[in-house]
Every structure is written in structure tokens, then in C-alpha cells.
Amino acid sequence: VQAPVVTVDGPGGSGKGTVTQMLARELGWHLLDSGALYRLTALAAIRQGVALDDESALVDVAATLDVSFEPTPPGEPAKVILAGEDVTSEIRTEICGDNASRVAVMQPVRDALLQRQRDFRQAPGLVADGRDMGTVVFPDAPVKIFLTASAEERARRRYNQLKEAGVDVNMSALLEEIRVRDERDMNRSAAPLKPADDAQVIDSTGLSIKEVLDRCMAAVSQA
Ligand code: C5P
């Protein structure tokens, strides 16, 4: 029997990152941050001098990613080590997210990361955060959540996050970036961002993290 999986898909800034970390902690399950793998592929490509439109070279980069996720105290994001170097904060930049969404449109790149993602499914269970967790990577997941929020709300959250981290940002530029990235993620032919047919959609606009977490926990306990 395979370990259970809760998939949480949705656009950037929907609160997925925070909610999946809390959910994994509450359940005592593993966490897959699949977006980090796309971000790491983009970052490793740039480091290796690979152009972000060179599909076959990118497939190679993705297939040979030397990455480890190191556990940190509960509630903190895992430390991300790429080829021996701590890139935890570097992969969180807007540029890296944008580059990630460019390499993520390529089906062969996605294929190269597929098994690596499925390998995270281990006892006692997995919380999987991404865009296609419920539709492609874990189509048999017993619990599927699609977490969304208005673009304005997502931009506002991202703005606060970046400000807190001491990054100087412009709100309208951020909103525009979010719209462009959503558009690219939803309109690509390879694993477009959309709720699985059997996903429960949660709109987190106006909800607190706690309220969103409670709804996710309710979905898990009903399964
Ligand atoms: O979730 P995060 O913002 O880290 O994801 C970065 C980018 O990686 C997304 O905009 C998306 O293009 C891509 N991605 C994806 N499939 C996933 C996770 C992320 O295509 N499962």
C-alpha cells in the first residue's frame, strides 16, 4: 500500500507554502515543495551557463540536480542545498520564480522531475505543494486541495513577505508579475495550473492562515 498524499495546488501567493508547512507539521508527514525543484532547475542552469530556452540542456540539468532538503526546526522552511551550497533564500527571489515558470512550460523538463517528486511519497504520508500535484504527479491522492486567492490579495501578501525580508518592492510591479506568471502557468499545454476534477477548492481571500489550515485539516479527516 502506498503512503497517503494530500495535494495542495494553486497559484503563487495563495498561501500554499505556509499552509503546507503547517499541515505537514500537524500531520507529522513529509513535505514536497515541488516549486523549489523548478526554481532549482532554473538556478542550476544559470550557474552552469545553460540558456533558459535550451530544452535538451535543461532536461540534463533537471535530471542531474544535486539537491538536498535539510530539515529545520518545525515551522521553518527546509534548508535547500544545491551542489553543497545553501541556496534557501536565493531560490525565493521573484526572478528565480519567473525563471522557474519559464523552464516549467517544457514537458521534457517536467518529465525529468517527475520520479524525483514521486519519491517523496513515503510513510507515514506526504503533503505535496505545487501546480500539478493533484492532476499529474499524484492523480490517485485521496485528498486534493486547490488553494486560490484574488491576484490583489496575493500581491499584497507577497509584498508584506518581501518587505519583512527587507526587500524593496513596488506593489504595482509585483501585481503585474503575479498576473504574468499566473497566465504562463495556466495557459501552458504541459500540466497547466487548474484544479483536479476531484479537488476541493478553497478561496483564501479574506481568510486567516488558521482558517485555511482548519479547512485543510477538515478535508484530510473526512477522507
Ligand atoms: O510554487 P513556486 O512559486 O515556487 O513555483 C515556481 C514556478 O514553478 C511556478 O510559477 C510554476 O511555473 C512552476 N511549478 C510548476 N509545477 C509545480 C510547481 C511549480 O510548474 N508543481
Extended strand count = 8
Distance between the termini: 16 Å
Provide the succession of SSEs. Answer: EHEHHEEEHHEHEHHEH
> Which ligands, by name, code or SMILES, are bound?
cytidine-5'-monophosphate
Summed up, the helix count is 9
Rg from Cα: 16 Å
Strand content: 15-25%
Question: What structural category do the secondary elements indicate?
Answer: alpha/beta
Low-confidence stretches: none
Instruction: For the largest sheet, list the strands in their spatial order.
Output: 2-6-1-7-8
Whole-number average pLDDT? 93
Q: How would you sum up the global shape?
A: globular
Helix content: 40-55%
Largest sheet: 5 strands, parallel
EC number: 2.7.4.25
Organism: Marinobacter salinexigens
Protein name: Cytidylate kinase
InterPro entries: Cytidylate_kin (IPR003136), Cytidylate_kinase_dom (IPR011994), P-loop_NTPase (IPR027417)
Q: Your description of this structure?
A:
With 223 residues, the protein is an alpha/beta fold. Helix content is 48%, strand content 15%. It has 9 helices and 8 strands. The chain has helices spanning 16-27, 34-47, 55-63, 94-103, 107-118, 133-137, 151-164, 171-187, 209-222, and strands at 5-9, 30-33, 67-70, 79-82, 85-86, 126-130, 143-148, 200-203. The strands form 2 sheets. A 5-stranded parallel sheet has the order 2-6-1-7-8. It is globular. The two termini are 16 Å apart. The mean pLDDT is 93. The structure holds cytidine-5'-monophosphate (C5P). Residues 12, 34-35, 38-39, 97, 100-101, 104, 130-132, 181, 185 line the site of cytidine-5'-monophosphate. Cytidine-5'-monophosphate binds at residues 12, 34-35, 38-39, 97, 100-101, 104, 130-132, 181, 185.
